[in-house]
Amino acid sequence: MRFIKGHGTENDFVILPDSDGGLELTPGIVARLCDRRAGIGADGVLRVVRTKAAGDPAAEALAGDAEWFLDYWNADGGIAEMCGNGVRVFARYLVDAGLAAPGEWNLATRAGLRRVTVGVSGDVSVDMGPPVYQGAGEAAVGGRPYAGERVSMGNPHLACRIDEPVATLDLTRAPDFDSEAFPEGVNVEFFRPVGDNHLEMRVYERGSGETRSCGTGTVAVAAAAALGSAQAGDRLPQGEWTVDVLGGRLTVTFDGQTSHLKGPAVLVAEGEIRRDWLTAS
Ligand SMILES: N[C@@H](CCC[C@H](N)C(=O)O)C(=O)O
């Protein structure tokens, strides 16, 4: 099985090319691939499959609008609806492999279509869709409660504004959250304003633990920070936000209708996964 290793602001992925959908990926295989000591190591797996061969009727319904489907898996083997950094790295891979031309086109994800803008090299940007505000929520770290804003970016987020530097948080263990509010689990972000439209953020991802970046989380915190500037009701924010994560810097732009995420998407290595390792229990 061929693989490529890539990352977006150090949110890292094992990319598995599977154009015609022959690969039988299981939660166990994904967890082993993502294992940082006994596997390749990653925050998640991106299976690259033609939308019409995705093996998922909801995805295949998007085949007329997007040639490729992002089949995203978290490091623990769970599936997620969307991955903002993953989409960007996936697009970089498609262009690098000659499977898509540089330019602007749709990708299919479990959260629907996402439009990417990708050149021959450099940053990749993606239309992430409008953030969906879902009201207040709460998480706790080491027994200390943090109030946050629930935001859906296709996947669930709780964006908690804090006053102290994010470096002071201990995220070695998963934050506690209300499982009735988040029956499917949640990605929990902690952010602090550090300048005009400028935030720092750390994230504890559902299914992956603390990661060095999260694209959907970045948009969620910018949306939560912008909430005060949005008018009550159905208006969405406008403006550009810089979000510093442990692995670098991302830019989030709101135009009153949707959100765009822009940042680096880097391919690092490629190789073969040994069949004997893959089939060993
Ligand atoms: N790192 C990703 C988000 C990956 C999915 C997330 N862990 C979930 O379960 O929803 C990003 O860049 O958005």
TrEMBL record:
Subcellular location: Cytoplasm
Name of the top EC class for this enzyme: isomerase
Key words of the record: Amino-acid biosynthesis, Cytoplasm, Isomerase, Lysine biosynthesis
Main subcellular location of this protein, as a coarse class: cytoplasm
InterPro entries linked to this entry: DAP_epimerase_AS, DAP_epimerase_DapF
Residues binding substrate: 11, 74, 84-85, 155, 187, 205-206, 215-216
MF annotations from Gene Ontology: diaminopimelate epimerase activity
Residues at the catalytic site: 83 (proton donor), 83, 214 (proton acceptor)
Cellular component terms (Gene Ontology): cytosol
Site for Could be important to modulate the pK values of the two catalytic cysteine residues, residues: 157, 205
Pathway(s): Amino-acid biosynthesis; L-lysine biosynthesis via DAP pathway; DL-2,6-diaminopimelate from LL-2,6-diaminopimelate: step 1/1
Gene Ontology biological-process entries: lysine biosynthetic process via diaminopimelate
E.C. number: 5.1.1.7
Catalytic function, reaction form: (2S,6S)-2,6-diaminopimelate = meso-2,6-diaminopimelate
Domain of life the protein comes from: Bacteria
SUPFAM superfamilies reported in the protein's UniProt record: Diaminopimelate epimerase-like (SSF54506)
Similarity section: Belongs to the diaminopimelate epimerase family.
Subunit structure: Homodimer.
Summary of the function given for this chain in its UniProt record: Catalyzes the stereoinversion of LL-2,6-diaminopimelate (L,L-DAP) to meso-diaminopimelate (meso-DAP), a precursor of L-lysine and an essential component of the bacterial peptidoglycan.
PANTHER family xref list: DIAMINOPIMELATE EPIMERASE (PTHR31689:SF0), DIAMINOPIMELATE EPIMERASE, CHLOROPLASTIC (PTHR31689)
Name of the molecule in the record: Diaminopimelate epimerase
Species of the source: Actinomadura rudentiformis
Name of the gene: dapF
